[in-house]
Amino acid sequence: MILSDHSSEDNCQPESFAALVANHQARLLGYIRSLIGDVHIARDVLQEANMVLLRKEQDFTPGTNFTAWALRVAYFEVLTWRRKMGRERLIFDDDTVQRIAEQAEIMTLHEEQRRDALKLCLKKLPERQREVVSQCYFDDGSVAEIAESSGIKANAISQLLFRAKRNLARCVRQTLDSPGVAQS
Amino acid sequence: MTKADSENFERLLGALESDGAQGQAAALTLNRMLSDDDAARQAWIDHCLTDAMLESDDALAEAIIEERFPDNVVSLPGQSHRSHSVGKKPKAAVQAAGSSGKWLAVAAVFAGLVTITVLVLRETGESGSSQSVVAEIGAQSTSDDDDSTPLVTDDSAKQSGSSDDGKAARRSEYEKMLLAEVKQGSLSRPPTPFVSTAASSAAAAGPAQRVSFNRDIRPILSDNCVECHGPDAAARKAELRLDREQDAIAELAAFQAGESEAPIVRGHPELSELIARIEADDADDLMPPPDSHKVLTTQQIALLKRWVEDGAPWEEHWAFVAPSASMPVSNDWAVNAIDRFVFDRLQQEGLQPSPEADRNTLIRRVTLDLTGLPPTPSQIDAFLGDTAETDSALEKVVDRLLASPAYGEHRARYWLDAARYADTHGLHLDNYREMWPYRDWVISAYNNNQPFDQFTVEQLAGDLLENPSQSQLVATGFNRCNVTTSEGGAIEEEFAVRYAIDRVSTTSTVWLGLTTGCAQCHDHKYDPISMREFYQLFAYFNNTTQAAMDGNVPNTPPVIRVYPSPEEKSDEEKLNAAKKAAEKKMAEARAAAEAAFGIWQNELKPESVSAVIAGTSPLGRAVHVSSEQLPKTNSVDGFEVEEGQAFSLVARVTVPEGNDDFLPLASQIDAQGRGFAFGLDLRNRGFELDLFGEGGEAGAGGVLKLRQIHSFKAGAKMQITVRSDGSRDPKGTTVFVDDREMTRNRYPYLESDNLSDTFSVADGTAVKIQARPPVLSELQIFDRSLTDAEIKSLQAVGQLAAIVEKPAESRSDADTEKLRQHFLITSVDAYQSSLNELAEAELALNAFHNRVPVSHVMNERDSVPMAHMLERGEYDKKLEEVAPGVPAVLPSMPIDAPQNRLGLARWLVDGEHPLTSRVIVNRLWQQLFGYGLVKTSDDFGTQGEPPSHPELLDWLAVDIVASGWDVKHALKQMVMSATYRQSSRVNPELLNKDPHNRLLARGPRFRLDAEVIRDQALAASGLLNAEIGGPGVRPYQPDGLWSAVGYTNSNTVKFARQYGENLYRRSVYTFWKRTAPPANLTAFDAPNRESCTVRRERTNTPLQALVLMNDVQFVEAARHLAAHGLASGQGNAALDTMSRRILGRSLDSAEQAIILESLEAFRQTYKTDVNAATQLLSHGDRASDRSHDPAELAALTMVASQLLNLDETVTKN
Hints:
The structure holds 2 protein chains of 2 kinds.
Chain A (H helix, E strand, L loop, with lengths): L7 H4 L5 H7 L1 H12 L2 H17 L10 H19 L9 H14 L3 H14 L2 H12 L4 H8 L3 H24 L7
Helix pairs in contact in A: 3-4, 3-5, 3-6, 4-5, 7-10, 8-10, 9-10
Chain B lengths: L2 H14 L4 H16 L1 H19 L1 H11 L4 E2 L7 E2 L18 H14 L3 E5 L8 E5 L17 H7 L6 H21 L9 H7 L9 H12 L20 H4 E2 L1 H5 L7 E2 L7 H6 L19 H12 L27 H12 L10 H13 L5 H9 L4 H14 L1 H14 L17 H12 L4 H10 L8 H6 L16 H21 L18 H10 L18 E3 L4 H27 L1 H10 L5 H8 L4 E5 L9 E3 L9 E8 L8 E7 L5 E7 L4 E7 L10 E6 L8 E8 L8 E5 L2 E2 L7 E5 L12 E4 L6 E7 L5 H18 L7 H15 L1 H23 L2 E3 L10 E4 L7 E5 L18 H8 L7 H14 L20 H13 L4 H10 L1 H4 L6 H6 L12 E2 L2 H11 L20 H5 L33 H4 L19 H9 L1 H17 L2 H12 L6 H20 L1 H8 L12 H15 L6 E2 L1
Parallel strand pairs in B: 5-6
Antiparallel strand pairs in B: 1-2, 3-4, 7-21, 8-20, 9-19, 10-15, 10-20, 11-12, 11-19, 12-13, 13-14, 14-18, 15-16, 16-17, 22-23, 24-25
């Protein structure tokens, strides 16, 4: 598999190593989660991967493909976690992990497009859905907190978030698939 | 990905979060979908990446927040401002776990992603921002309209700019929108995909009929409400119970006075919260809640309203109220009481009973039902020729059948399913368990028509009766039939708990018709059985002396010997007395010879050692390799073994380290490959003796392998003796370690046996020595069978040399004793003769014990039965201790009843018990009619199906108790009824109205059970061996079925079929290995007997036809059926005989024509290919009359095979 040299944001000027790691958090989390399934565990494994990345700073040659390297590190962290877990706690078998990893590696290349699509799609959300999404994600508000402050039952907030995210997901995929968007 | 797949995804992603089996299943499904579907994988990764971006991509957050909230403040109406400073967001940090609702959201997002392939995006470009309308193509579009929610709505455009509005206004606007959204969600619930049978029967009630609580309302509450508002205190929501009248229903006055908040107000649906909730528009208020995926139909809601309006009459669950017999008026059709109830119900349904079946059908039906065998042609003729009214003619037949021993065999088979009877332990090695005396007890109890109450008490508590008889003890085997283990590492306490749980579940299912199993972890969700009450039942079975590990032996204590007759017991006593007498004489002889031994010992010199040894070797030794010779000897001259000649191998060995299956010691194999090999099985700490026929192990002569396992410890030094009588019978071989006979498994087990008839070794064959000191230090082979005394002496001799070399004063007592033994055996005649007497007595006792079986029984500890409640049923999570007791909803235990299994058993058959009698008659009904009056014969609880004829069930229950629990009486009444005697012919209208014949407007018709199909073929072909009882038999079965599931050191890993009469025994006697039950029976839904089964599945698979066409048992039966045909004539005459034997009737002319045509085609085939005919006729051991022309017999055999395959043959009509 060939990865493009640098992700676009890396191109303008050399970033500090720590900044590179920071800028890759979202895609690393998404990548790890796609291999593990559970988002909470994925966050923990991301922490492990971050520590490895920071420890291995010397191993990384500036100017080479950071994304590919970081994904590789994350992949090994996932394998380490899988070894530690009992087989019964794993959601995916070895073959499936392998396949997801290959596909996810390619899909993380469209980070910019995905972000643009997401921005666009957030704009398209009905106001009430957008509010809940931003409460939940950009304010880090829990459903319970939002419920408490808005006086609406948590169940109803969840339902709303449910629909918002479904709409977003469809819209993002549509946008990425539409001919106007370059496939990297 | 299909629509169904995507819906699956939604569910399974939700399920992923749960830890239990649900989450496991979801994980498996997700893995499967992602492993082979690119689109699914893309959707999944999309979802993960997008969600992660939303969660932790700072660039996105920045962009969004700056764009939408230029003042960099995010606020929700009414909320105190929560500032979000993008720059301060911690880099590379893990955020705290988000909302609890996220997984729900995930499910939604994902569902959206996977359905996107069928979505059409329509651009409706307007005012700069493109407005997308997502319209879904698919069946769900009308019912799930929020899928098509436009991404942008008009008011959202207005809202985005309204940040100046007052907080209050914004808040109320926002709330309104949220509520609108929520309401929309609740209205778009998917319609329920299934309609419960209870609902449909209730709907059939129509406006005229009163709503019945038990028939119409309880099932609705039980299925939809009680899981959260029922008996399980831990799962109960809102402290609300809908399973008890006092909690569920308020009187109007009490409600108005505010004294009761019960959700149902008698007579006032408009005041009843329950009605408001089931009709609520708001998802928050709606019950059952949308996320339960339970939806009430409009019919169900209407029924509930009508019931409340009618005053909400409450009834106790029918099965917990003692039955009371009422008798409807008679009618012209009715033969006995049963028919009155059935007729009444048919009248209500506007149906008429069917006419009586013809006598051919009737006698076959009743004979199969009562005996599990087909009627013989002469029995049919007698019935057809009986000029009496059908009533009395049939009664004669029924009485004859009930008196036949086949009756008990057939009834026992149903009971053995319930008792989970089998011939192996069931877990791990799945070794042999000697248990068959219990099976024979059940058969004889039915044949003696033992009253069901006694039958119950003896099985559950025979050991607790005063002076229990042998038979009453054997009966307690019921509770010893459960699966057990002896696996290394298994935790004893855990298995002891599992056994007790199994016993509670089995007892509950068999007598109470209740599923109690779930109460081991929590209060029952539907039935009023608390966790505490479960452990009170558990306590009854928690007081056994049985060890948790079965030891892999056939006789796990407590067991008893089962003497065929009292005389045999006295035989054993005589043998024991003879043994004692011989021992006494030996002691006397020993005392008398003490002085002589002293003199002999004093004169003993080291020089005389070799003389001592030489003088004590038994006669006839053919091979002797001493320890001095062994290191340099590869082979020695052997000897001829003639057919049937005995021989003995004696080896002195030191067991080495290692894990080999077979470490060879010595072998003698002639040029033709015939011979024996003898070695150690280190893995199983045992020995193996292989006898090879011509060609050696892989040759045509076959091999017989004997194995004796678990006989010594690693590192042991010992003398091994293998004594063979030269036969292929494993009982003819005995293994000794030193002078001890290995009797743990009685005799070595036969690992494989396809040796050609006899065993022999050619003269002049060398014995190959395959081990060296220290592993092998001496080898002797004798061309005869050694006596026990000789073996003992040899063992002593082996140690004599070393002892004699020691100075007399440094010999230990044990050394001296060995010398004394040697002296006594070789020099004292009186001792020798008493030793021989002892050996004879012991041999006779061994032979006796081989003949008299053991059976597993229950034995109570002295202590009072108690049990700890166990958290989630886990053996090591002990909670409070409880005493034995019975569930409060059932009749209470009499105060003076014994606090043990005896008390429990008597309570079950008290006669007042609401369940036992109903459960029993229902199962008898099920055996005859295919379905019980309560279809869920294993569940009479609130989740079970209510009875189709409640009054009939009650009447039968009361009647069987009144008859003195007379099972034959109950069955006779059922088979004599007009209901049973109806023709099973059905018209499309009736079939449509009542596919399973629950209304009984026709006679029973269903596929015969596995055992009946096999027994019928054996009986019709004249092969059946009617012998009753005895050890399990092993008829034909494909090779390898046992080894496929077996551990190599299991004593049931190799299936060795039997020969002769045992091939043709009734199926109830077939050896039942739990991990590989008889294949030709399981193909027809026989259970594996791992747990209690009171209701078999009844499936149709192509395998069944393949069994009937190809299984040796059936091919052989077809040949014999054909031979019977040929014996009576050619062509039509032959066919008629065959048809009458198997179908119980003659063929009509149309059928004859078809079959003759088929016969003619087969004739042509076999006339031109005689080899094929011979080959077909070669299947099965039992020869048929050789005078028949092979081609004709083969052709008719194929026709017979077709007859055995007929739908009519495998169906009770």
